[in-house]
Every structure is written in structure tokens, then in C-alpha cells.
Amino acid sequence: MKIKEIYIHIPFCVRKCGYCDFLSFQYNEETSEKYIDCLCNEILHAEIEDTEISTVFIGGGTPSVLGERDIERIMMTVSEHFLLSDDAEITIEVNPGTVTENKAKLYKQIGINRVSIGMQSSDDEMLKKLGRIHNKKQFLECYGRLRKAGIANLNVDVMSGLPGLTLEKYEETLKMVCELGPEHISAYSLIIEENTPFFELYNPDNGKKVSELPDEELERRQYERTGEILSMNGYHRYEISNYAKKGYECRHNTGYWRGVPYYGFGLGASSYIDGIRYSNVSLLDDYLKAGGIAKDTDSIIRLSKNDKMEEFMYLGLRMTEGISRKQFKNLFNEDIDDVFGKVINKYSALDLIMCEDDKIFLSERGIDVSNYIFSDFLM
């Protein structure tokens, strides 16, 4: 039986954050109802073949902005059409300002067993600057409601590199989260994306408030303290931006980095099935008019052998355990050194890539410049 994963995109938020360039927009009940109809229709039309689903990830946007009935309907549709493995990891992303006690209870009742909370910072002033709809108190209430409801696998998102964020304030956020003891912590650095309000304010070239961004040394110290504080509190780094207690690594994302096929449902969602990558249309009107059956034909790409070898390298090296020479040989019938030996040797000589027996992985310094290294594996 083939193992696959499912990603479900909910493009609605209470309001869009200033730094966000994701495919999302303000929640509207009437539009949301139409969207859920189309989403469920799309799921029911998926060709499942001999497939078992190991993970489901409901992301966005802010999926928790939906009412209880909508989330329950989505999960019922997935369960009716697909065979979920007995130990399937089922995740929903939430914003602390949108999780009521009833929603928390419902998530547990319908089989959601992992919740990812978008906290970002414990500092109310910083949260306001980011455009978040919650404050520290609401985050703590949300966390408590989910624990009370019996959710035993929680992730908390935190962000570094924020405008005006001191090292001390960032450390306070990390320490507060560690005291709560979630099973997983995702630690991201702010990226100033084009076509966002933050780009106008903080664009390094001509932003109005670019001076508020941390300098290179402060950003480096925040990055270092992330690893130090989380390590001291029992979290191990298993991917460039992700830390977990033993046994709580995000299985959905790990599957993505290891090349596990996945279905993507919803507006703009991407899929990877039978060596083909494709996406749904990204215009809401087009998606609704098509009843959810709306692939973007221009996005369809059948991966060549070279494409797959490239992805094996730059996705697999995101994980701290690295990649396996033996697995590369089994998948592609090629010796990894014959294909990528020059690149591996180049960065090994710089102590950026480490080679130990069957394993090839990035060093700590290599993780710092990972994007630069990954680009060298493009054929």
C-alpha cells in the first residue's frame, strides 16, 4: 500500500499580518461556506488508488478562524474518502486569538492530535507591531485550553530578527515557551517579503524604518541563543528551523523533506503524486467557479531523474540527520559521489558538510549558509 500525506489549505484570517505573503485574506462567512463546499468536493474527487494516509496538515491562513462545524465537515470528508493510518498525525494551525474552549474540545473529538500555535513573540508591543490579533495573555489561555482538551502534541512558533526586538526580549520569549513545555518549537527568522506592508517599512534598500531591523551581529546572537536555550531545555534540532522533544518531530514536514508524496487540497495548494508536481489555481473566484476541481495547468511538472536527485539533496540536507549514500544508490542507481562528489568535497574541505560512514549532513556552520550550499546542488 502506498503511503501519502495530505495538506489542506484554509486561506482565511481575521486580518493579514504585516509580514505575511501567504495566499490568504480576510475571513468572510458567506465566502467561507462556499469555499468549504468546494474544498470537500475536491477531496472527494481525489484519485486515491491503493493509498494510506500517514499525516494530515490543515494550514493557512488561519484554519482556527473557521467554525466548529466547518472543521468537523472537512475531517469527516477526509475520513470518508481516505484510509487514515491508525497512528496518523493530524495537525491544525491556530491563531491564539481564535481558539475557544469549544473549538479546542472539538479538535480532540474529531481526531486532531497535533496543534501548531502561531505565537511568534511573548512581547505585546512586538505582537502589535507584527499585526497579530492576540496578546501574551490570549496565547497562554489558548495553550491552556488545548492542554485541557487533551491535545498532547503542541507546537509553538517563535520569530527572531524582528524590528526592535532586543536579545533580552527574544530570550524571554524562548524561556517562557520552554517553561510551558510544548513538544515542538519552530523558530523562524523574519524574512522581508515583497508585496507586504513590511516591505515598504523595512526593505533594506529604501524602507522607511529599516533602522529598526537588528544588525547582523544581533541577528546572529538571537540565532545562537535559540539553539542554546532550546537545547538546555530538552529540545533537539532536527531541521534547520525546527526543534522537538524526542519522538515529537513533525512527521508531516519530515515526510516532505524525505520526498513522501502528498495531496494538496484548497486554493493554491501544491501536490506531489507519482513524480509529478502541480498546484491548484490561486485566484479564489476561479477555484469557486470550478467547484474546487481547478488545477493550474501551467504548474504541472513531471520531475526528471536529475530533478529528483537535486531535491533529494537540498531537501534531505535540511534535516540534521542528513542523507544516506545507500538510499541515494537504491533510489537512483547512481553513486552519490559520481553525481555530486565535487560539491560534497568542496564543502567538506570548508567543514560545512560532514561525511560519516553512510551519512552526509551539514555542520553547524553549514546550516548557517545552507541556502548558498543548496544552490550548488542544482544541476
Number of self-contained structural domains: 2
Low-confidence stretches: none
CATH topology of the largest domain: TIM Barrel
**Beta-strand percent range:** 15-25%
CATH class of the largest domain: Alpha Beta
**Class per helix and strand makeup:** alpha/beta
Helix content: 40-55%
Strand tally is 17
Coarse shape? globular
What is the topology, as strand order, of the major beta sheet? Answer: 9-10-8-7-6-5-4-1-11
Name the CATH superfamily assignment of the largest domain. Answer: Aldolase class I
The number of distinct helices, counting runs of at least 4 residues, comes to 15
Tell me, rounded to a whole number, the average pLDDT.
96
Largest sheet: 9 strands, mixed
Head-to-tail CA distance between termini: 33 Å
Name the CATH architecture of the largest domain.
Alpha-Beta Barrel
Radius of gyration: 21 Å
